[in-house]
Amino acid sequence: MSINENERFAEVKKYISINAPIGKVWGYVATAEGIGAWFMPNDMQPIEGKEFILQAGPWGNSVCKVTEVNPPNRLSFEWGEEWLITFELKEKEGQTELTLIHAGWKEESQTEFGESHALVRSRMSGGWDGLIQKLKHVVES
Predict the structure, then answer these.
(1) Which residues pair with 22 in a beta bridge?
(2) Strand partners of residue 18
(3) Separation of alpha carbons 120 and 103, rounded Å
(4) What is the distance between the alpha carbons of residues 36 and 38, in angstroms, rounded to a whole number?
(5) Which of 78, 101, 104, 114 could be disulfide-bonded to 86 (CB atoms 3.0-4.6 Å)?
(6) Residue 43 pLDDT more than 50?
(7) Is the torsion defined by CA of 61, 81, 6, 100 positive or negative?
(8) Angle at Cα 53 formed by Cα 135 and Cα 11, nearest 5°?
């Protein structure tokens, strides 16, 4: 999936500082077990080009594909037909700064489930707020 800059609008970006070394945080964004602890059950392996399944509850299973692995600083994957999720990590003074980017939104498009991107983007943006707080809690516990 390549996202044309002219076709998308307002990536969802979330930032959080986690009181843990970058290697520990990496384990929670780049492994199936780690992602499953705070996000969704999955069978992801951090191998570029590797497909995996996110078990998205009431929305069913979503086919995903790892597109970039740069340990311990960056991991990206395609989610379904339209979205690209990226985790960027930077170590700073014993903590890890995480940026989560959810890209692929197209203002006039609908998701594969028939909902408008504008509606789903708003819902997902709020959902990511809670999820990155959960990630922080899980990592720091």
Answers:
(1) none
(2) 96
(3) 12
(4) 6
(5) 101
(6) yes
(7) positive
(8) 55
Buried-state track 97-122, b at ≥16 Cβ within 10 A, e below 16? bbebbbbbbbeeeebeeeeebeebbe
User: The tokens of 48 are what?
Assistant: 């570029």
For tokens 């983007």, the residue is 121
List pLDDT tens digits, range 86-125.
Answer: 999 999 999 999 999 999 998 888 887 788 888 889 899 9
Residues with Cβ within 8 Å of 106's Cβ and at least 6 positions away in sequence, in order, are 7, 8, 9, 82, 117
| Strand ranges inside the chain, DSSP E | 12-18, 51-55, 61-70, 74-79, 83-92, 95-103
Tell the residue number behind the tokens 């720091």, with chain if given: 140
Task: Please report which helix (H) or strand (E) contains residue 28, including its range.
Answer: helix 22-29
Which burial class, exposed, middle or buried, applies to 26 when counting CB atoms under 10 A from its CB (0-12, 13-18, 19+)?
buried
Cβ atoms of 89 and 75 within 8 Å: the answer is no
Residue 1 predicted with pLDDT over 50: no
Structure tokens at 26: 């990496």
